[in-house]
Write a structure and sequence with these properties.
Layout (H helix, E strand, L loop, with lengths): L2 H13 L2 H8 L3 H15 L4 E4 L2 E4 L1 H28 L4 E7 L1 H18 L3 E7 L2 H9 L5 E6 L6 E15 L10 E3 L7 E5 L4 H12 L5 E6 L2 H9 L5 E4 H4 L8 E6 L4 E9 L6 H14 L2
Parallel strand pairs: 3-4, 3-5, 7-11, 8-9
Antiparallel strand pairs: 1-2, 5-12, 6-10, 6-11, 6-12
Helix pairs in contact: 1-2, 1-4, 2-3, 5-10
Keywords: DNA-binding, Transcription, Transcription regulation
Protein name: HTH-type transcriptional regulator YwbI
InterPro entries: HTH-type_LysR_regulators, LysR_HTH_N, LysR_subst-bd, WH-like_DNA-bd_sf, WH_DNA-bd_sf
Length: 294
């Protein structure tokens, strides 16, 4: 028994007529009669008593129709829900955002997306870029924003920001009057950095090692505003992306260009193309691409 046969059976029972059921289903009367006959032979029972033009369900027919009605209704609900998803009326998206990225780039994207698709819910997970990348790779998140290059295999990447890190120091720092500073000149300073689950943590330490020193890290945080505040009260120095530097109160700190080396800060949206991605998640990616490149 398949869903088509059950649909035919339910309609014949509802109309108590093969002809009326055929009209309702937009098929021929011989087609529906043949289908019901085939179903009776398959099940080994008689479904309808035929008295001239009048038909009525047998006991077996009543049992089967009762179950078939529930199955047909469930199938129709399933089809309707899938149509809603295809038409982007409903859905749910799990998005991973590093804290310093979300506030600066995505309120606009999420706000406009919600305005267009109010029935699609978005669940945000704020974690460091390394954790976000790992969770997208293992399927815990549908899509995420990471610091490039991505290290997990199997990720599709859409880059949307290309910036670099700047040095942030207290106004009384010996380098505060400079326009540019080489990284190796910071060997004797105390650093305030993001936590270890942030890509910038490992990248800054690796770049310091390349120029010959291990940075003295006195504090780690997940919040860029706390990091900048610690610099503002003279506890240490830090390296922050250009976008973040534009948000800092520059009356309390000095922002200096970092050279030799320039440390890039490139961001990208990542997802797994080789796994199922919902209609709503695919639309969010498409929508975000369009908004972010404006």
């Amino acid at each position: 028994m398949d869903i088509r046969q059950m649909q035919y059976l339910v309609e014949v029972a509802r109309h108590q007529s093969f002809t009326k059921a055929a009209d309702a289903l937009f098929i021929t009367q011989p087609t529906i009669s043949k289908t019901i006959k085939s179903l009776e032979e398959e099940l080994g029972v008689v479904l309808f008593n035929r008295n001239g033009k009048r038909i009525e369900l047998t006991d077996a027919g009543q049992i089967i129709v009762s179950q078939a009605q529930q199955i047909v209704a469930s199938f129709q609900n399933l089809t309707a829900e899938l149509d809603d998803l295809r038409n982007l009326k409903r859905g749910h998206i799990r998005i991973g955002l590093p804290p310093m990225v979300g506030a600066n780039f995505f309120p606009k994207v999420i706000g406009q997306f919600h305005e267009r698709y109010p029935e699609i819910t978005i669940q945000l997970f704020e974690d460091g870029a390394k954790k976000v990348e790992y969770d997208v790779a293992n399927g815990s998140l549908d899509v995420g924003v990471v610091v490039l290059p991505a290290t997990q295999e199997g990720l599709t990447v859409f880059p949307f920001v290309e910036e670099k890190l700047n040095l942030v120091v207290h106004p009384s720092h010996v380098l505060a009057g400079r326009e540019e500073v080489n990284l190796k000149e910071l060997a004797e300073d105390s650093f305030v950095l993001f936590r270890e689950d942030f890509t910038l943590h490992d990248r800054i330490i690796a770049e310091c090692a390349k120029v010959g020193f291990q940075p003295h890290v006195i504090y780690e945080s997940s919040q860029w505003d706390l990091i900048s505040e610690m610099v503002a009260v003279g506890l240490g120095i830090t390296l922050l992306p250009e976008t973040i530097c534009r948000e800092i109160d520059q009356r309390r700190v000095r922002i200096i260009g970092l050279t030799q080396p320039v440390i890039p800060w490139h961001l990208g949206i990542v997802w797994r193309e080789d796994r199922y991605l919902s209609f709503s998640a695919r639309e969010w990616i498409r929508f975000a691409k369009r908004v972010l490149v404006q």
